[in-house]
Write a structure and sequence with these properties.
The complex is a heterodimer of chains A (about 270) and B (about 475). With about 270 residues, chain A is α/β, with parallel strands linked by helices. Chain A contains nine helices and ten strands. Chain A has a single domain, classed as Rossmann fold. The longest helix of chain A has 21 residues. In chain B, about 55% of the residues lie in helices and about 20% in strands. Chain B is built from 19 helices and 13 strands. The longest helix of chain B is centred in the first third of the chain and has 39 residues. By secondary structure, chain B is α+β, with helices and mostly antiparallel strands. In chain B, a hairpin with a 6-residue loop joins strand 8 and strand 9. Chain B is elongated. Chain B folds into two domains: about 200 residues, no CATH class; about 230 residues, no CATH class. Classes of the chains: A alpha/beta (about 270), B alpha+beta (about 475). Chains A and B meet through helix 4, helix 5 and helix 6 of A and helix 1, helix 14 and helix 19 of B.
Chain lengths: ~270, ~475
């Protein structure tokens, strides 16, 4: 597991933090950070089976900002949940950093979710009992045992504060989610997703519940993170407007990838 | 770490949890109070019974008793093991009898248990002199009447004495001197020590605030007539006694039945000289009782006697108390069981309410076991807080139970603790720390056990469904 998570950047093509990604013009092909092959998923209720994904193929390169669009029911959120190991696929495979991850035991899936992935959801999904700072620290608390947490607590708090500062919430660290606006909650959720220095950020309709201005703020933040820190982002949305800022657009319809569109200017 | 943080936050923010805490608290407090009061009763009862019965009783099979107790005691003390362990012995002669006295010229008849004792040796065995009411007699127990009692006795029997005015009548000097009257002496009755409840009536209306007042029917020096049966022929024998003192052990059964008289006089009255029905034995250390009983049985092998410790003699009563306490504990633990179902219901609600949070935690990498631990830890925390508050409440109630009883009694006009049943001035309590600990452990285990199911359910939630849960 550790070799997967802490794999050296040079072997995976993962950029170092702070290093911007330049388009590779050499003949050596870039190894995708995420490879989805023939992914199928159907939901079952009693004897009734509702197929959602019919065999999705998708590659995401390191440092790429990919958006997935599609109509409601096209399976885009399901795809994201399967990639994020929140659900189990019926067939097909998911490879992350060159290793298949969809068939790993639960404990390793938990660890990948905690250490390698960052999640941003449409409804923010912050824990209402915790302050903004505690919400941001939560993935680190989950990842470490009580002793490890006590040892690394000081550094973690400093980093969480830096992240909140970066998303413009340095003055609201002790506020509970109910005291924050929608945009602020989503930026807190973004800080939470970044606290473990994830290698893949999965965003499920991150602007779906925000007004245009707050939504644009969040997208700007994602774009900056992608450009400045080389963060690989896979974003599901139905808002075509915000996909303009992404490197590539994948269109999903009835459980299949029907179209891909590159945005070289983005 | 997040588990502890979330447990604490849930405890602070969920009012539903307070209901769990209150139910555990009430259950624990009730168990502690009831156990302490039952222990108090049981300890006091045991102390009293032990005090009254002495450590070991060598008892005849029937009311005819056995002969020559002195020789038996000498034989017992000749055994080095018994001599080393026995502190003192006292022969007693026990028989049922009828007692009659007049109160305001109305005769009252009671059945009693008549016990002939030698006050000195009986006091050495214990459980006697400390229950006498006159301070002088406590120090030096006897059946002698006090000067006041003697004066009352003389006043009661003024007609029995030779009137002085007969001496003053003129006599004829020529007449021959009258014959000397036969030597006569007014009958001096023997003193007796009578159970407090036999010599007193209880007046419930006289006192205020539900207190009862004792009305004395027999003053020291007053006469009582005792009728019993003589030795083997069972012919009735009667004698008059005078009250010397009262016996107040605060055990209703003894205070309303026991009348002590001098053993030698009772032996004469019943024509059974040198026979007694039992020998009470006091040990230096009660822990040696089983060994001493076994040895006594060997020494008195061919005698018509039974040797028992006080516990064996009162086995049925002590067993009844034990059984009563056991059943009560089972019933009360059912109360905590009910509190457990409350925890189950409330936890199920909390899990439903927290479904989305569980989804978030799982999405962020929390394991099934981690999520389960949050809710188990929450149950443990509720149990601990409930136990802590319940223990404090239970101990506070136990400590102030008499004040609470009189307050509720005053409020409702109903006496909750009828003092004449046991003659206890106060509700006795005895807190056993181990018992309190067991109650706490039991309550915490119940709280954790009933949170298992909701915790397991939380752990099994599918994160995607949990995240979509509204």
């Amino acid at each position: 597991m550790n070799d997967l998570v802490d794999v050296p950047a040079a072997t995976t093509g993962q950029p170092l933090v702070g290093e911007s990604v330049q388009p590779d013009t050499t003949s050596v092909p870039i190894k995708p950070v995420l490879r989805v092959n023939g992914l199928k998923k159907a939901y079952r209720k009693h004897t009734l089976s509702v197929p959602v994904l019919h065999g999705v193929n998708l590659n995401v390169d390191p440092g790429e900002f990919v958006s997935i669009v599609g109509q409601s029911g096209s399976g885009k959120s399901t795809l994201l949940h399967l990639i994020g190991l929140l659900d189990a696929n019926d067939s097909g495979s998911i490879e992350f950093e060159g290793r298949r991850i969809d068939n790993l035991p639960t404990s390793q899936r938990d660890k990948i979710r905690n250490e390698a992935f960052g999640f941003v959801f449409q409804f923010y999904h912050l824990l209402p009992e915790l302050t903004a700072l505690e919400n941001v620290l939560l993935p680190l608390m989950i990842g470490k045992g009580p002793f490890g947490w006590l040892v690394s607590r000081g550094r973690a708090v400093t980093r969480a504060k830096e992240l909140l500062e970066r998303v413009g919430l340095g003055h609201r660290i002790d506020h509970k989610p109910r005291e924050l606006s929608g945009g602020e909650m989503q930026r807190t959720a973004l800080a939470r997703a970044l606290i473990t220095k994830p290698r893949l950020l999965l965003a499920d309709e991150p602007t779906g519940n925000l007004d245009d201005e707050s939504g644009a703020d969040v997208i700007r933040l994602l774009r900056t993170l992608n450009r400045e820190e080389g963060l690989t982002i896979l974003m599901v949305t139905h808002n075509l407007e915000i996909t303009k800022d992404t490197d590539r657009l994948v269109r999903l319809s009835k459980g299949l990838v029907v179209d891909e569109e590159l945005h070289p200017a983005a | 770490m997040y588990k502890v943080l979330l447990c604490l936050r849930y405890l602070q923010t969920r009012w539903l949890a307070m209901i769990c805490i209150v139910s555990v608290m009430l259950g624990v407090a009730t168990l502690i109070v009831v156990n302490s009061v039952m222990n108090g009763f049981s300890t006091k009862l045991r102390d009293r019974l032990h005090g009254l019965l002495s450590d070991i009783v060598i008892e005849a099979y029937d009311y005819d008793g056995f002969l020559d107790p002195k020789a038996k005691m000498a034989r017992i003390m000749a055994d080095p093991y018994l001599a080393k362990n026995i502190e003192s012995m006292a022969p007693t002669l026990e028989i049922f009898a009828m007692l009659q006295y007049a109160y305001h010229d109305v005769p009252f008849t009671r059945s009693i248990r008549l016990i002939g004792i030698d006050p000195k040796s009986r006091a050495e065995v214990g459980g006697f002199s400390e229950f006498l009411t006159q301070p002088d007699r406590k120090a030096k127990p006897s059946f002698d009447l006090s000067p006041d009692a003697k004066a009352r006795q003389a006043k009661n029997h003024v007609m029995d004495r030779k009137p002085t005015y007969f001496q003053e009548l003129p006599t004829d000097p020529a007449a021959p001197p009258p014959p000397e009257p036969p030597p006569s002496k007014p009958h001096e009755p023997h003193g007796l020590i009578i159970g407090h409840a036999i010599a007193h009536f209880r007046d419930r209306t006289a006192g205020s605030e539900g207190q009862v007042k004792d009305i004395r029917a027999l003053e020291p020096g007053d006469d009582v007539i005792i009728t019993t049966v003589s030795g083997q022929k069972l012919s009735p024998v009667v004698d008059r006694f005078a009250v010397a003192d009262y016996f107040r052990s605060e055990m209703s059964e003894y205070d309303s039945m026991y009348v002590f008289v001098p053993i030698d006089h009772l032996q004469k009255l019943r024509t059974m000289e040198d026979r007694v029905t039992s020998i009470l034995v006091r040990l230096k250390n009660f822990d040696e009782a089983p060994g001493v009983v076994a040895r006594l049985k060997t020494v008195l092998k061919n005698e018509p006697v039974e040797v028992q410790t006080w516990e064996q003699k009162q086995g049925a009563l002590l067993a009844a108390i034990r059984v009563e306490k056991g059943i009560l504990n089972i019933l009360l633990f059912m109360i905590i069981g009910v509190a457990g179902f409350g925890i189950l219901a409330i936890f199920t609600m909390i899990v439903a309410e927290k479904t989305r949070d569980i989804g978030i935690l799982k999405a962020l990498g929390a394991s099934r076991f981690g999520v389960m631990q949050i809710f188990l830890g929450y149950g443990l925390l509720l149990g601990l807080v409930g136990c802590l508050l319940g223990t404090a409440m239970g101990l506070a109630i136990t400590h102030n139970i008499n004040e609470i009883e009189s307050f509720i009694g005053g409020l409702t006009g109903q006496e909750l603790f009828p003092r004449d049943i046991y003659y206890f001035d106060k509700i006795p309590t005895d807190v056993h720390p181990m018992g309190v600990l067991f109650v706490n452990i039991g309550a915490v285990l119940i709280a954790v056990a009933f949170s298992l199911l909701p915790a397991f359910r939380a752990a099994s939630l599918n994160p995607v469904r949990a995240l979509r849960y509204e």
